[in-house]
Design goal:
It contains 21 helices and four strands. It has a two-stranded antiparallel ribbon with strand order 1-2. A two-stranded antiparallel ribbon has the order 3-4. The termini are far apart. The relative contact order is 0.09. It comes from Streptomyces tauricus. InterPro entries: ABC_transp_permease (IPR001851), LivM-like (IPR043428).
C-alpha cells in the first residue's frame, strides 16, 4: 500500500490583495528593492557634478564633494536608504523604525525627490534650459523618481469605501470618491504602533539624548546660516519631510520617551547645546538672529502659562513685554529717559518684571471674570491702549515720559561685574561680539523662565490651571478658586514677559511704541506670540521655543518673495494647522483630543505632557 505524505512547508508570502496594495501597481518586493536602490543611487549622484558652471549658487560643478543643495539631497538619500534597509530587518537598524518603516520610506523618498527636482528645475530656469545639466543632475532626477515610485508601491491596509446612494448627483458622487481617495492617501502614510524598545543602560540612553541634541543644534545652525534663497527653500523641504519620516517611523516618540525619562539631563544638555551656538559662528550676523529668537521664545513661553496651562486667550500679551522694556530703559541711564537713574542690570530687570506683574494684576483683576472671546477682546484692547498711551506720552499730547514716537533711545550696553556686553571678548580662543554676549545672557534668562514654567506646571497651582483649562465650571465645583488661580497665571506670565523686555531694551538700543503692536511683519507681536504657542504645542516647554524659532526664522528667510512673503507664510501656517492641529511638539493629552484613533498612553503627567 502506498502512503502519501504531505511535507510541512512555510507558506510563501502572498502578493497583496486589492485591500492591501500600494498606491502604484508595482509588486511590493520589487518596489522595496527599487526604493533601496534609488536611495543608494541618490547618494552616489551627489558626488557627481550637476552643472558645468559655477553661476548657480552653491557651485555644483565638483566631483567627489557635495555642495549646496546636493548636501540636502544626500541627506534625503541617506534617510531613504536607512529606512529601506531597516524594512528588511537588518540587525542594528530596526531600532530606527519602532513604528514600521514603510511610511518613513515614502516620506524620506519624497524629501530627496522634491529637493532634487527643485534643484534641477532651478538650474534649468536660471541657466537657460536642461542643456546646463551635467550627468549627476540627470542621475539624481532619475534615482529619486525611482525611489519614490518604489516607495509608493509598498503595501498598506486600504480602508473600505463608504457606501453611497445611487440616486446621488454626479457632483455628490465625485465628492464621495474624492473623500475616499483622501482617506486612502492618508492611510498610505499612516504609522503603526510604536513598539517598546529593549531596556538600555542609563549611559546609553543619555548618549542618545546627547546625539539628538547635537543633531538639533546642527540643523538649527545650518538653517540659520543658509546663504542664499534656493538653499533655504531646499532646507525647508528636506527638514519638513525628514522630520515627518522620523515621526512616522516612531523614532521621535522613542527619543521623546528617553527625554521624558531623563528630564533634567535633557534640559541641561539643551541649554549647553544652545550656549555652544555662538561659538559655531564666524561673525556676529547670525548671533543677532539668535538673540532675537530667544527674546521671542522666552516671551512665548511666558504666554504659554496663560494660554497653554490656564487656557486664557490673551491677545495683548506683547504689551507686558513693552512694559518691561520701557521700565528698564527709563532706569538704565538713557539720556532720553525722564529719570536720571542708572540702576544695575539685576535691579532694572527685577523692576521691569515687577512693574509688568503689577500691570498684569491691574488688568486681570477686573477682567478675568470674563471668559472666552470676551476676555480676548478685553486683552486686545489693553494691548492697544498701552501702545497708544506710550505714543502720546510725549509732552504734547500727554505727560513727557516716553518721548512719544521717538521712544527712549541710546540705551547703554550692559556692564555686569566688569564684563561689557558691547565689546568683543575672547573665550577659550573663540571671539564673541556684542550680540553673542547678549545671546548668552538671554539664554540664562530663558533658563530661568523654563525652570519657573516647569515648577509651576508641576505644582498644585499648575494642576489647578489645567483643571480650569479643561472645564472651568467643573473646577469651580470642586472648590478651586478660579479667579485667584487665573489672576496668578496672568501676573506670572506678565512678569516673565517683563523680564525678557528688560534685556530687549539693551539689545535694541531703542524702545519705541511701534515694536509692540498686535500684528506686524516683524515679531514679536501679540499675533506672532500666540501663533508660536499654538504652532509649537500648547502646554509644553519645547513647543513654544521651537514655534518661536520657526516663526522668526522663516519670515526672515522668505524676504526674497517680496509682496508674496506673508501669503506664503500664512499658507504654510494654514496647512500645518490643518494636518497637525495639536502643534509640532504637543503634549500627549492634547494630541489625543485631535487624534482619537491614536493609542492612549499608559501614564499622563499633571499637565498632560
Amino acid at each position: 500500500m502506498t502512503t502519501q505524505t504531505n511535507t510541512s512547508r512555510t507558506p510563501a508570502a502572498k502578493e497583496p490583495t486589492g485591500n492591501n496594495a500600494g498606491l502604484i501597481g508595482i509588486p511590493p518586493h520589487i518596489g522595496r528593492a527599487l526604493a533601496t536602490g534609488g536611495g543608494i543611487l541618490t547618494i552616489i549622484s551627489t558626488f557627481l557634478a550637476w552643472t558645468w558652471t559655477d553661476e548657480f549658487p552653491g557651485d555644483l560643478t565638483y566631483y567627489g564633494y557635495p555642495g549646496g543643495l546636493q548636501v540636502l539631497v544626500l541627506i534625503g538619500g541617506l534617510l531613504t536608504t536607512l529606512f529601506a534597509l531597516a524594512s528588511y530587518g537588518i540587525k542594528g537598524l530596526r531600532w530606527l523604525t519602532p513604528a514600521g518603516a514603510d511610511s518613513a520610506i515614502k516620506l524620506a523618498a519624497l524629501a530627496a525627490f522634491a529637493t532634487a527636482w527643485y534643484t534641477v528645475i532651478a538650474i534649468s530656469a536660471q541657466l537657460g534650459g536642461l542643456a546646463n545639466l551635467e550627468p549627476g543632475g540627470w542621475v539624481a532626477a532619475v534615482a529619486t523618481l525611482a525611489a519614490v515610485l518604489g516607495a509608493l508601491s509598498l503595501p498598506f491596509e486600504r480602508p473600505a469605501p463608504d457606501p453611497f446612494d445611487p440616486e446621488d448627483t454626479s457632483w455628490e458622487q465625485f465628492r464621495h470618491k474624492a473623500r475616499h481617495t483622501g482617506t486612502v492617501i492618508k492611510a498610505a502614510f499612516a504609522a503603526g504602533t510604536t513598539k517598546p524598545a529593549r531596556k538600555l543602560p542609563p549611559y546609553a540612553e543619555i548618549l542618545i539624548i546627547v546625539a539628538a541634541l547635537a543633531l538639533g543644534l546642527t540643523v538649527f545652525t545650518y538653517g540659520i546660516g543658509t546663504e542664499y534663497d534656493e538653499l533655504f527653500v531646499g532646507f525647508l523641504i528636506t527638514t519638513g519631510f525628514g522630520f515627518a519620516a522620523a515621526a512616522k517611523a516612531g523614532l521621535v516618540n522613542r527619543v521623546s520617551a528617553l527625554t521624558g525619562k531623563h528630564r533634567n539631563v535633557t534640559m541641561l544638555g539643551a541649554f549647553v547645546a544652545a550656549a555652544a551656538f555662538p561659538f559655531t559662528q564666524s561673525n556676529d550676523q547670525y548671533a543677532t538672529i539668535g538673540v532675537y529668537i530667544l527674546i521671542f521664545a522666552t516671551v512665548a513661553l511666558g504666554l504659554n502659562i496663560v494660554v497653554g496651562l490656564a487656557g486664557l486667550l490673551d491677545l495683548g500679551y506683547v504689551a507686558f513685554l513693552g512694559v518691561g522694556a520701557y521700565t528698564a530703559a527709563m532706569v538704565s541711564g538713557s539720556p532720553s529717559s525722564p529719570f536720571d537713574i542708572h540702576l544695575p542690570f539685576w535691579a532694572a530687570a527685577l523692576l521691569g518684571a515687577a512693574v509688568a506683574m503689577v500691570f498684569g494684576v491691574l488688568i486681570g483683576a477686573p477682567t478675568l471674570r470674563l471668559r472666552g472671546d470676551y476676555l480676548a477682546i478685553v486683552t486686545l484692547g489693553f494691548g492697544e491702549i498701552f501702545r497708544i498711551t506710550v505714543l502720546n506720552a510725549d509732552g504734547t499730547s500727554g505727560p513727557d515720559i516716553t518721548n512719544g514716537s521717538n521712544g527712549i533711545s541710546s540705551i547703554p550696553n550692559l556692564n555686569i561685574l566688569g564684563f561689557d556686553f558691547g565689546q568683543e571678548h575672547t573665550i577659550a580662543g573663540f571671539t564673541i561680539a556684542r550680540f553673542a554676549n547678549y545671546f548668552l545672557l538671554m539664554l540664562l534668562i530663558t533658563l530661568v523662565v523654563v525652570v519657573v514654567f516647569r515648577r509651576s506646571g508641576d505644582s498644585r497651582i499648575g494642576r489647578a490651571w489645567v483643571a480650569i483649562r479643561e472645564d472651568e465650571t467643573a473646577a469651580l465645583a470642586m472648590g478651586i478658586n478660579g479667579f485667584r488661580v487665573k489672576l496668578i497665571a496672568f501676573a506670572l506670565g506678565a512678569a516673565l514677559a517683563g523680564l525678557a523686555g528688560s534685556v530687549q531694551a539693551h539689545v535694541t538700543y531703542t524702545v519705541t511704541p511701534e515694536q509692540y503692536q498686535f500684528a506686524h511683519v516683524v515679531p514679536p507681536n501679540s499675533a506672532f506670540l500666540l501663533a508660536a504657542v499654538v504652532l509649537g504645542g500648547m502646554g509644553t516647554i519645547s513647543g513654544p521655543l521651537v514655534g518661536a524659532a520657526l516663526l522668526y526664522l522663516i519670515p526672515a528667510k522668505l524676504q526674497f518673495l517680496g509682496n508674496y512673503q506673508l501669503l506664503a507664510f500664512g499658507l504654510a501656517l494654514v496647512l500645518l494647522m490643518r494636518f497637525r492641529p495639536e502643534g509640532l511638539i504637543p503634549n500627549r493629552r492634547r494630541q489625543l483630543e485631535f487624534h482619537e484613533e491614536a493609542e492612549a498612553p499608559t501614564v499622563l503627567s499633571k499637565a498632560g505632557a
